[in-house]
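Worked example 2:
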Amino acid sequence: MASLLQLFSLFFPCLLIYTASSNQIPKHYIVYMGSSSEVNDEAAESDHLQLLSTVIPRQDSGRISLIHHYNHALRGFSAMLTENEASELAGHDGVVSLFPDSVLQLHTTRSWDFLEGQSRPRFSHGSYQHKSSYDVIIGMIDGGIWPESPSFRDEGMGEIPTRWKGVCMEGPDFKKSNCNRKLIGARYYNVLHTSNGNKTTQMRVDKSPRDTVGHGTHTASTAAGAQVDNASYNGLAQGTARGGSPNARIAMYKACSEDGCPSSTTLKAIDDAIKDGVDIISISIGMSSLLQSDYLKDPIAIGAFHAEQLGVMVVCSGGNEGPDPFTIINAAPWIFTVAASNIDRDFQSTVLLGNGRTFQGSAINFSNLTRSETYPLAYGKDIAAKFSPISEARSCYPGSLDPERVKGKVIICVDSFPIVSREIKKLVAEDAQAKGLILINENGKGAPFDSGAFPFTEVGSATGYKILKYINSNKNPTATILPTADVPRHRPAPVVAYFSSRGPSVLAENILKPDIMAPGVAILAAVIPKVVQGKKPLEYAIKSGTSMACPHITGASAFIKSVHPKWTSSMIRSALMTTATVYDNMGKPLTNSSGSFATPHETGVGEISPLKALNPGLVFETTSEDYLKFLCYSGSSEKTIRSMAKTNFKCPRKSSDNLISSINYPSISISRLDKTRGFRTITRSVTNVGLLNVTYTATAQAPLGLKVKVLPKTITFVENVRRVPFRVSFDGRGASTGYNFGSLTWSGGPYSVRMVFAVNVK
């Protein structure tokens, strides 16, 4: 025992020394100091350097420098600090919050035609094109842009708006002439890169706004790409490609690389976009749902708050961590949060077995295999490498298969190791010279995987069982995988994408998130030119993710802004939300990828109908005061809020998160309705943007047992009445425990204004 104590006494000081020294290793921190100051950039930078010098010792004066400096919409900086220095600086009177820089991840033509078809409008998209007098500028914060894409041609576009203050930064592979009247601005920043193929990372400047990943080009063309005829991905999804607002201008802010997006850089890009004069910011980026802390340590929430304060709309992807609940991100009430759905087009690759039976799998592949020849078919566990666990071989785990036994065969594997991506499984099969790969994966069918020229397809468990049964009942089973064909008029659509993150929000359950759903599965849009099978470079490709859904909402918002230039961000958001559709192309309620009825925690209010949103009748205006009250109710101090908003705002005497339910949002969420306490009343106000002298009548659709009462039941808008309040009371005494979903609709004249609610009865 003594020797153990002696050993511990020797080791423990070493542990203390190591811990202490590790705390003194400088790391990158963001220092947020609230709303922008009145001083110029040079003076503000000097003030921030002076502040740094108060915590960094004189012997380390080389570290008294700013990596990023924020002074347009918000105030603050990022710098290298030790843990002790960061802790000391966090207590400084002018600092609102201080947090480590983190890595955010990048979360795409038929989709617009599909949305218009779903709208069944009383007017056409084309009828509004020439009336769109207001030039909308969209700021894309992403991974850069490929300016030569036909989607960014500027034919027919007028002069760049004089309010535009941005720049077109040059680089070795990007000239000022790459910008035009469509792509009016491009910036680049320090971005994150993996060093030497290992897990360490470093910051470096790419020195060019050019896209090296393809993500930024895809999202930008989805939001505002020009009309391009005969676009396709190597013959798939052929048609006319265009963005949701083809007449809008694009400014690209390259804040990301293939390794992610530093949060400090993302915040800098938001600050610059606001200064440059954009109308809408589109961000298909976010942190993991597991890393969410609070809004004052979230760079996107901080930047979006200041954007909203200055009249700039921010649209964000909700994340790709579905189908689990509480995974939605970018869920602050001042952010328009987007979920993903499919459209009425599918991509299928046929599996042909040696016995003549065929099965349809989901895939995007340009296989050169044909019906004329089949190849030996083998299950992964039967061709395992020596000493490999059967469970790994079944799943095409790297190193688990015997290359000699794989060569020349079509192999079938099960997706029992979700951490091993489809890309890796495909590479395992391809490297072992397999003729093709059939993957059994019930959940992957919602987003087809692009395997390029390698024969690949993905089937559900029921189909997979039939193929395995065929293998087990034949001595020499054979199969082939045919190239992908697109299937038009696919039903049902839209359906919630399996990967789309779900609500409720971890940080604010009394705001319904996501807000809305848009196409995000197998979307065709512009990319970096890609060579497939030695053919002419392909300028368009198919991608999936809430990253692809986000620019659909951005484009729709820009389209509405062009017709209604005086509408605020919250008015545009409300118009899209209250006119969304809750039915698929079979006329049935929306479903998820499991075939169950979808809930508002999956779809938000439903699928966008941009044309209907042009004339919503009534809108819910969420004001700056609503957002400040939200911060009060969420626990932020009055001092912090005043620093953020540059006002003498006073929090209401009563502040609790329950009161969040009554901020003037276009949907209602109540995280707790006590069965024993009777009614809970929520207040709202609607603003008339439609015809005068229209009387609206409220009707509620609620699940059995939940009583919903609206007062007043009718509202009439006459000449001098612009905004009218109303109350909604919920009684859960007879309702089922758990979340109850329903809607409240104000109907009058040609208008139907639908408001979704989610009430958690306990």
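The mean pLDDT is 90. The radius of gyration is 28 Å.
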